[in-house]
Amino acid sequence: MSKLFRGPKFDSAHKMILLAVMYFCQAIPLGYIFGSLPVIMRENNVSLVRIGGLFILHLPWAFKFLYASWVDHHYIPFLGRRRSWIFPLQWVAAVLLLVAAQTPPDTAYNAMFLVLMMLNIVMATNDIAVDGYALDILEEHERSCGNTIQAGARYVGLFLGGGLMLTLHHSFGWKALCIVLSAVVFLLSLPVLFHREIPPVYRKYANRKEQPAGVLAFLRRRDVLWLLPVLIAPTAFAFSSIQMRAPLFVDLGLDSSTLGRLMMHYAVPLGVVGTVATAWFLNRFGPRSFLRLFCVGTILLAIYAVHLSHGGGVTLWEAGVILSADNILMGGINVWGFTLMMRISVGRNSGTGFAVLSSLFILVPLVAAPLMGKLGDVSGFPFLYTLLTGLMVTGFIIAETALWLSRRGGQREALAKVVVEGPLEKVPRR
């Protein structure tokens, strides 16, 4: 193992393997928590109020930017700037999963919730270092592939943690599977432990202007201010639209078992395909073209949801196609978003910049989701999806307007580094 990850030069394949291991280490246990735990709790007659409380476990991921600069600038020199955080936190996560094994959700909910909150804080902190490391080591031409691995890890986590582990739960139970997950996390930490930290690629560019450190300094940058509406406006309500799709199908007559089969057999695998295909699309046609494709796709799906909600029913093939399209677009927009975040955050303070943007990327949908859910309860799905359609069209217009104004306002050169008119720049190997 050490031979694989040690050496004077790291080619792209070694970097991608290393990133895959680090992102899978996060995704598999989190897939179990967010994909399997609600089902396990409901089967054990845990109240919906407590199940709904699991939403709070997302908060460490939304607010990790508050201390990202501290993670960027504090480390143990002989371990390395990123390794100082990554594998020790992975070991802490493995220990917390062993503790969680002793707190089953049906009999020790409060203790389990506290342990899982600590686990999410640890994983979110680890993610700051992993994302920063990815920005440190990836060349421009490697980033779309790196982002594909990052987004694809979500689907692997959902499939293994939220699908396979849920199936095994009926045979082995909560305690045994938490122990298995602890062992998985520990084993996936070993490649990080046994490799020598790769020097950041930005050090090769002597003429690169280093950006000031800190969250506020990052948010004051003009190119970041121009990027934020492009990154957030088209996606905030699109995420809510996709999230509400399964509850809509339940109201239209499909049960959870049927939806689960559609997700595992069609939607999740096609989401992986969409994630991989987006990397090719970005290199071939560029981020702006993909943004337009995403916006048109999500708007058309929302309009069709209005049609279905008025009709009062949905066929299996319609549900399968829509859920698959949702997952393809979600996988793609994550690759798109991570690519833009990487481009604008690269540098010594990359962990801070990426944490700020990724937190804002999910914070707005997290705030919007319960509001949209409440509105759906009060007004029904036809009105909800009509409103979401209008909000997504508005978000699309805001993003296009921001791009147009940035060109007229003299920011074309700065923003072109992030959202380009054509394909991603092909940077030769050095």
Overall 3D geometry?
A: globular
Q: Which percent band covers the strand fraction?
A: under 5%
Low-confidence stretches: 1-8, 425-430
End-to-end span in angstroms?
Answer: 26 Å
**Number of continuous helical runs:** 18
CATH third-tier fold name of the largest domain: Growth Hormone, Chain: A
Q: In percent, how helical is the residue content?
A: over 70%
The SSE string, one letter per element, is: HHHHHHHHHHHHHHHHHH
Mean pLDDT: 81
Annotated CATH architecture of the largest domain: Up-down Bundle
Our Rg estimate from Cα atoms comes to 21 Å
Report the strand count. Answer: 0
**Please, what is the CATH homologous superfamily of the largest domain?**
MFS general substrate transporter like domains
Largest sheet: none
Look at the helices and sheets and give the structural class.
mainly alpha
Write down the domain tally: 2
What does the model show?
Helix content is 77%, strand content 0%. By secondary structure, the chain is an all-alpha fold. The chain has two domains: 1-203, MFS general substrate transporter like domains (Growth Hormone, Chain: A, Up-down Bundle); 213-430, Up-down Bundle (Growth Hormone, Chain: A). The two termini are 26 Å apart. The model is unreliable at 1-8 and 425-430 (pLDDT under 50).
Topology summary:
Layout (H helix, E strand, L loop, with lengths): L1 H4 L6 H32 L4 H5 L6 H4 L5 H6 L9 H18 L8 H29 L5 H51 L21 H6 L1 H11 L3 H8 L1 H7 L4 H30 L1 H25 L4 H30 L4 H30 L1 H28 L3 H5 L14
